[in-house]
Amino acid sequence: MIGTELKAARLAARWTQIDAAARLGVTQAYLSMVERGARAVSVELAAKAVEVFEIPATSLPLCPYESTDWDELRFKQALGSLGYPGFAYLRSAFRINPAEFLMRALDTDELDARVTEALPWVPASFPALNWDWLVVSAKVHDRQNRLAFVASLAREIARSRGNAVLAEKLGKQVAALEKSRLAAEDTLCSEAITQAERKWLRTHRTPLAAHWNLLADLTVEQVDYAPN
After folding, report:
1. Which of the listed residues 19, 123, 204, 226 has the most CB atoms within 10 Å of its CB?
2. In this structure, is residue 188 part of a structural domain?
3. Contacts with 14 (C-beta within 8 Å, 6 or more apart), sequence order
4. Does one domain contain both 35 and 145?
5. pTM value?
6. What are the pLDDT tens digits along the chain (228 aa)?
């Protein structure tokens, strides 16, 4: 998020700088400097602005990615806060950029099956997803195959909904990831599966999963809450 975006959100809400500053917990002078570009939008201010104004979560700042352990509930709460219907009942004040959420999920060895099924919903629901940050982060941590697989499913969702523009955009991201496709076998966030399950998946996985060297059987049909 930059100052001009914050100013546009304030004007759209028809608030004066004084009113907006009070709601954001800063001084009018500080907000004025931020809107003029004299001061950067801090992480704290951006998070508060997304909460106060009608600003999409994709405007939340993204820091260099670092792996951290999230528990199952935190992933579900994050999805609920992003608007995923399956976990709407867990929606909270916790906000996160959808690109960061997706990266954290893809970089997790074990995800709840319902969270994994929701992953294609993220790129299918946020056309303004920061792909530059996401692709760089995925490559650094060798998660590009997982990302490409999820993006491919999201592309199919977009096509099924008649969103040709988004489908084309996602297709370009998948094509770009093709150049860095990893040969090593991987799973889609389910590293604890048994050798018997791995053997079964090698035979029964979809052609798309096989192409991306993933032991996974997730399909578009399993995404219960694809966006309209």
Report:
1. 123
2. yes
3. none
4. no
5. 0.83
6. 788 888 988 898 899 999 999 999 999 999 999 999 999 888 788 878 877 887 788 888 788 899 888 999 999 999 999 999 999 899 877 778 999 999 999 999 999 999 999 999 999 999 999 999 999 999 999 999 999 999 999 999 999 999 999 999 999 999 999 999 999 999 999 999 999 999 999 999 999 999 999 999 999 888 756 444
Asked whether residue 76 falls in the same domain as residue 137, the answer is: yes
Residues 29 and 120 in one domain: no
Q: What is the extent of the structural domain holding 23?
A: 3-55
Cα distance between residue 138 and residue 132, in whole Å = 10
